[in-house]
């Protein structure tokens, strides 16, 4: 399960569409980390993540991908994959609509496949050069296939909040919380601190909490992960 710290593994910290790009065109960040230890401990960890944002006037497209793997003494202890896409349209400078599709696979959390489709409205509550606060609410459809037992299809509410603040040109903090609230509710939270070392490179520390209201028998309802690493922005 999750809940480990690896100095060279990168945080899969979330970036809101409005925070990633204010101008038309492409922007984003790529992350890649590898940790290998031998001797008394034999651990291998790999995290690869990519976030892309494309803005064309009032429309923005956000893509994200994640692969998170850890092996200890030739035994896989974590293996997670995720893909996501969100389309947003700004009705006004503050109000926007969105549609999103997300997929994940995490057998260590008991899920072989989970799809979540959502539509709703968002509000740019704060949008300044140093501070961003986005709030979203909508309706979601979710289909989950479990490692054991029957799958589950449900309708749920989707809530999201994203906050970021730059203390100066080099140091910033961010917080994202996504809740899908239904028969089987989940809440995912990522907190991060980022310190730039150049125009393109930064150091990041993050703490992630994943809560599932109905875990499979024998599994805990909360997973956590603490990570440190390097981020390349473009």
Keywords:
mainly beta; 12-stranded antiparallel barrel; 70% strand; Porin; 234 residues; disordered N terminus; 1 helix; single chain
Offer a quick outline of the entry.
The protein is an all-beta fold.
How would you explain this protein's 3D organization?
- The chain has 234 residues and is an all-beta fold.
- The chain has one domain: monomeric porin ompg (Porin).
- The protein has one helix and twelve strands.
- Strands 1-2-3-4-5-6-7-8-9-10-11-12 form a twelve-stranded antiparallel barrel.
- The longest helix is centred in the N-terminal third of the chain and has 4 residues.
Distance N to C terminus: 32 Å
Structural class: mainly beta
Helix tally? 1
Q: What multimeric state do the chains show?
A: single chain
How many domains would you count in the coordinates? 1
Roughly how much helix do the residues carry, as a percent range?
under 10%
What's the architecture, going by CATH? Beta Barrel
| CATH C-level name | Mainly Beta
- The total of beta strands comes to 12
Overall form: globular
Low-confidence stretches: 1-21
Computed over alpha carbons, the radius of gyration is: 18 Å
Strand content: over 45%
The overall pLDDT average reads 86
CATH superfamily: monomeric porin ompg
Tell me about the biggest sheet? 12 strands, antiparallel, barrel
CATH-assigned fold name: Porin
């Amino acid at each position: 399960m999750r809940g480990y710290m690896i100095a060279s593994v990168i945080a899969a910290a979330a970036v809101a569409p409005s925070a990633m790009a204010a101008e038309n065109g492409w922007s984003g960040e790529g992350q890649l980390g590898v940790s290998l230890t031998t001797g008394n401990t034999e651990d291998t960890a790999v995290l690869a993540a990519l976030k892309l944002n494309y803005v064309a006037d009032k429309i923005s497209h956000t893509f994200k991908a994640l692969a998170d793997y850890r092996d200890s003494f030739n035994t896989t202890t974590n293996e997670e994959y995720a893909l996501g896409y969100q389309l947003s349209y700004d009705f006004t400078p503050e109000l926007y609509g969105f549609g999103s599709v997300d997929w994940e696979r995490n057998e260590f959390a008991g899920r072989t496949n989970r799809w979540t489709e959502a539509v709703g409205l968002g509000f740019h509550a704060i949008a300044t050069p140093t501070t961003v606060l986005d709030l979203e609410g909508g309706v979601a459809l979710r289909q989950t296939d479990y490692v054991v037992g029957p799958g589950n299809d449900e309708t749920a509410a989707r809530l999201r909040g994203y906050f970021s603040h730059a203390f100066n040109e080099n140091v910033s903090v961010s917080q994202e919380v996504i809740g899908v609230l239904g028969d089987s509710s989940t809440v995912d939270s990522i907190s991060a601190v980022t310190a730039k070392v150049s125009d393109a490179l930064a150091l990041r520390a993050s703490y992630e909490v994943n809560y599932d209201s109905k875990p499979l028998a024998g599994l805990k309802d909360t997973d956590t992960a603490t990570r440190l690493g390097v981020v390349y922005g473009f």
